[in-house]
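Usage

Read records sequentially. Each one opens with the input sequence:
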Amino acid sequence: MHPNYKNSYKVEQKELLSLAVYNVGYQKCDLMHQWGPGVRDHYLIHYVISGKGYYKTNGKKYTLEAGDSFLVYPNREVTYFADHGLPWEYAWVGFNGSDALSILNATNFTPEHPIIQKTPHGEEILHELLRIYEVRGNEFERAVEMTGRLYTALALFMKSADQKTPSTSYNSYVQKAIEYISANYSYPITVEDIADYVGLSRSHLFRSFEKVMEKSPKEYLTNFRIKQACNLLKTSDLSITAIANSVGFENNLYFSKAFHKVKGVSPKVYKKEHDKGV
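and closes with the structure output:
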């Protein structure tokens, strides 16, 4: 690896919905290197290869060294920076998808304690992260291979996790709700349907989503549907009406308004821009 050099790759097309790699890379940081304060829209795991650095989130500051790892949760403000005397080198992978939360809940990462010191199976995890970088690419075949390597890396984190008893925590409620949304978003399901499936009142489901996802269940459902609509707009010749119906919107006008609110353009313009390769 090159000293004081960053090797990174961002995925343009995120076609896999259960779990998809968003970005991957490794970097030997300069003395003053810092990211943040800021938020990500996806999960991001860093594994420290050498040196020392610091991770700040939820009002806490963690000191991390070689063999440690830390997790950035979506929409949570974080800052991380290299030690001034012995700057760290790390590898990372960013990802998201409907499987992400349930997998991470089976590891020792938690929102309250998003680090793992002296990470078990660390060398194997590092190997998989570097392999994800080596097989990078936007072709569907590459996306599948990157995701396969990611599943392997996450399985290594799960392998060393403490035994966790079944809980009725906010996380487990949200996980169950996301699984339901992933399987049923193409039907005209409502927040009430989701709450009934999870076994909560609508207000309790709302509080669970606000705490874990920092958005309401309605916002999550709408964003999930719009994401699927984007895939169809880019990869199919279906009409706008057909796409609206396919992702759970029975009203074409409401679909267009919801799409514009999330993406900043109408479905028609979005499709036209993609057709031009913009």
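Summary fields computed downstream for this record:
- The first strand starts at residue 6 and ends at 10.
- The chain has a mean pLDDT of 88.
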